Every structure is written in structure tokens, then in C-alpha cells.
Amino acid sequence: MDIVSHGLWGGASFGRKSKKNFWTAFFWGVFPDLFSFGIFTLTTISGFAEGPDWKAGPPDPSSIPSYVHMLYDFTHSLIPFLIVFFIVWLVRKKPYYLMLGWPLHIIFDIGTHGTEFFPTPFLWPFSSYRFDGVSWSSPEIFFPNLIFLGLLYIGWFLVHRYKK
């Protein structure tokens, strides 16, 4: 799924109480992609590193630096999420539910990433199993996602509008 949709799903699912909660949940929704691809994207945009050619579709995964793959494994696995979530819970002495955009991101990615380009390693480091999903950019995933997000946010807007 695209990074903006991940943020919108995270914000709508876990950040409805306030604008601050929305943006925090939005952040956790985009966190896995932001943390794994963000550094690489910044270095290629700024000219410090050369990026792959995306014009013909997804590039060969070997053209992407190994550190991106390592960060992707970490951020797209439920195991590191659970460890971080429980550490935060211990420190705060209560669960931090706004972080649940992170596993929601992973769950969406399991079904919307094929095995040919960055499949979701949701059980890493205990298993290398990856589900061969349907690419999020395919019309049967992309357009329903936009429609459901649109309906969700229209409904949310209408409920808040008529509450006042």
C-alpha cells in the first residue's frame, strides 16, 4: 500500500480523539516505510547516492542498498513491533495505542506486496516466509483502497460536523 494510505488508515483507526492523536497515529502508520526507505530516498534526492531507475516499474531489488533491506525486515515484522510496543508499555506503565498504526501497516502490506519486490517479512527474524499478495498498485487493490478511505473520511467528517 502507498505510504499516504498507510498514514490515513493509521490516523483514522487509532487517532480519532484529537488532531495530535491523529498525526501521531498517522506517523506510526507511515513509520515502517519512512524508516526503511526514508534515508535512502533522502540520499538519492539530495544526490549523495544514486537510486535505481523506477521508470519501467519496480527495479531489481539488488539495485537497492542492503541497509534498506535490513531496515525493511525490521520495520515490516510483527516481532520487532511487539518488542518495541511492550518496552514502551513498560516505560509508560500503560499501552501506547497510537503505535498500533505500525502493525496495521504490516497487516495491510502482507496482502498487498508480491514476492517479487519487497514482500512483507512479517515473522522476521523467526521465519523467512513471505506471502505472495496482490500489488497495492494494481487496480483491484488501489481503487477500492481509495474508495474505502474516501468513504471513511467523509463519514468521519459528517459525524463530527453534526456533533457540534
Which features characterize this protein?
single chain, 164 residues, mainly alpha, 6 helices, globular
What does this structure look like?
The chain is mainly α. The protein is built from six helices and no strands. α1 runs antiparallel to α2 (19-45), α2 runs antiparallel to α3 (66-75) and α2 crosses α5. The protein is globular, with a radius of gyration of 17 Å.
Gist of the model:
The chain is an all-alpha fold. The chain has helices at about 5-15, 20-45, 65-75, 80-90, 100-110, 140-164.
Structural class given helices, strands, pairing?
Answer: mainly alpha
Task: State the helicity in percent bands.
Answer: 55-70%
- Strand composition percent: under 5%
Q: Detail the poorly predicted runs.
A: none
According to DSSP, the number of beta strands is 0
- Topology pattern, helix = H, strand = E: HHHHHH
N-to-C span: 34 Å
Number of helices: 6
Give the CA-based shape.
Answer: globular
Give the mean pLDDT. Answer: 92
Specify the biggest β-sheet: none
Q: How big is the Rg?
A: 17 Å
List the helices and strands and how they pair.
Elements: H1 3-14, H2 19-45, H3 66-75, H4 78-92, H5 101-112, H6 139-163
